[in-house]
Amino acid sequence: MLRQITASMTFETRGRGLLEVTGRVADWVAESGLSSGLLSLFVRHTSASLLIQENADPDVRGDLERSFARLVPDGDPLFRHRDEGADDMPAHVRAALTAAQLSIPLTAGRLALGTWQGIYLWEHRMAASARGHSSSGGGVRR
Amino acid sequence: MLRQITASMTFETRGRGLLEVTGRVADWVAESGLSSGLLSLFVRHTSASLLIQENADPDVRGDLERSFARLVPDGDPLFRHRDEGADDMPAHVRAALTAAQLSIPLTAGRLALGTWQGIYLWEHRMAASARGHSSSGGGVRR
Amino acid sequence: MLRQITASMTFETRGRGLLEVTGRVADWVAESGLSSGLLSLFVRHTSASLLIQENADPDVRGDLERSFARLVPDGDPLFRHRDEGADDMPAHVRAALTAAQLSIPLTAGRLALGTWQGIYLWEHRMAASARGHSSSGGGVRR
Questions:
Q1: Does B44 touch chain C (CB under 8 A)?
Q2: Could you tell me the CA-to-CA distances from A65 to A16, A71, A122, C15 in Å, in that order?
Q3: Contact residues on chain C for B103, CB-CB shorter than 8 A
Q4: How close does chain B come to C65, measured CA to CA in Å?
Q5: Distance from CA of C105 to the nearest CA of A (A)
Q6: Global pTM value
Q7: Count of H helices and E strands in chain C?
Q8: Beta strand B17-20 pairing with B117-123
Q9: For B56-101, how does the pLDDT look when each residue is reduced to its tens digit (9 = 90+)?
Q10: pLDDT band at A81 (very low <50, low <70, confident <90, very high)
Q11: How far apart are CA A117 and CA B102, in angstroms?
Q12: Is some CB atom of chain C closer than 8 A to the CB atom of A38?
C-alpha cells in the first residue's frame, strides 16, 4: 500500500562549501520503511542548494567552488542587493544556477544513487549556518 | 488515503523578468484539499523557468537579471539559432541553467516554503507572453 | 487506485552532446499503464544531465554546447581534478549547472510536455558512454 511521509532535518554548515548529507538522508529512508517510491528533498533557503555530485575525489568540491566563484564573483559592482555583505547576492545567483530541490527514486528500500553519486547541501554564504530542509517520501512500504 | 490531482495554469508575463506565482500556487494547494504530500510544478516552455528565490527585496530580482544577462549575452555572435531575435537563443540557455520543474513538499495543507522563499516564473524572452504550467499534487487528502 | 512503478534504462551516448530520449521515455509511460500522475527521471552519473529543451531546430543543441563550452572551458588551469582528462572537471561543473533529475506530470496516459519540449540526456564527457537512469512513476493506473 502507498504511503506518504514528510519530515524536516537541519544541518550545520561550516560556511561556504559542500556538505555531504547522503548518510543522514539514507538513514531517514531506512527508518521510513519505504521500499519503492520517490524521495524529494527541498532546501528551505535561497542561498543554499541541493546537489548530486561525485563523492570520491575532494578536489571536485574545491574545483566546483573555484568555478562558481569565477562565474559569480563576490563583491561584484553589478549587484545592488548588498545588505548582508559581498557574498549575499552571489549566494542567490548560485542558488538560481543550481537546485533547491532533488527527487531520487527509491528501490529495494534504498536511494537509487549511482556508484559515484553523493547528495550535498551546498552552502553559498561565507558564514556557518543552520540549514533546514524537508524530506518527502512517497511509495510502497515494506 | 492517497490522491493524485493534476491541473494546468496560465500566467501572463510582462516580458523578461521574474513573476511571482506563490499566491496562485498556494490557492491551488488550498483548493486541492491535500494536507501532506508533494506538489510538482512543470513549465511547458523552453524559454521560461521555475525558480525559488528571495521574495523580500526587489533588488534581488534585478540583480538576477543583470547577472544572467552577463553570463548569457543577448545577440551573442556565438549563436546560430536567431530566428526569433537576439533574445531567442539566450532564453534557451537561461532555461538550461535554471529549472523547468520544481517539487515542493506539502505539510498541514500548505507549501513547506522557507520564510524568505517565493515561487517565480522566470520569463526569459523580451516580449510578454502567456505561459502555461502543469501542477501535479500527490498526497493525503484532508 | 494509486500505483508506484520504478525501472532502469540505459542509453548509449556518442560523446558530448544532447541525446533525445523523449520517445523511449514516452514508450515506458505508455507501457506502465499510468494515466494521471508524476514521472521522475534520475540520471545515475555526475557528468551527464537531464534537460528539457526545444526539439525543433538542431542549431539550438549546437548553441547550447558552444555556450556551455565558453562558460566552463575544457582544460581550464583552474581545475585540479584532471585524472580523466581536460573534459573531466568541466563535465562535473556542467552537471552542477544543469539537473540530475526531472519530474514531469502525466495526464491522460501521456507526458504533459509542451509543444516544443523534448527530453534530453546531455552527455558532458567527450567519449561515448552507456548512461543509466532510473524512471519512477507514481499515479493512477488505467
A1: yes
A2: 9, 10, 10, 26
A3: 103
A4: 10
A5: 14
A6: 0.96
A7: 3, 8
A8: antiparallel
A9: 888 999 999 999 999 999 999 999 999 899 999 999 999 999 999 9
A10: very high
A11: 21
A12: yes
Q: Which helix (H) or strand (E) holds B130?
A: strand B129-141
Amino acid type, C50: L
Q: Which of B4, C7, B98, B112 is nearest to A136 (CA)?
A: B112
Cell of A112: 537509487
Distances (CA, A) of C47 to A37, A70, C16, C122, C132: 25, 20, 10, 9, 12
A30 close to B (CB below 8 A): no
ipTM of the complex: 0.95
* Total residue length of chain B: 142
Largest CA distance in chain A: 55
Best A67, A111, A136, A141 member to test C by mutation, with max C CBs in 10 Å, is A67
- List % helix, strand, coil for chain A (3-state, nearest 5): 25, 45, 30
Contacts of C59 in chain B (CB under 8 A): 80-81
The b/e string for C64-75 (b: 16+ C-beta within 10 A; e otherwise) is bebbbeebbeee
d(CA B16, CA C74): 31
Q: What single-letter DSSP state applies at residue A47?
A: S
| DSSP helix/strand/coil, B12 | strand
Contact B55, B116 (CB under 8 A): yes
C-alpha cell at A22: 547522503
Amino acid identity, residue C32?
Answer: S
Residue type, A94: R
Cell numbers describing residue B40? 510538482
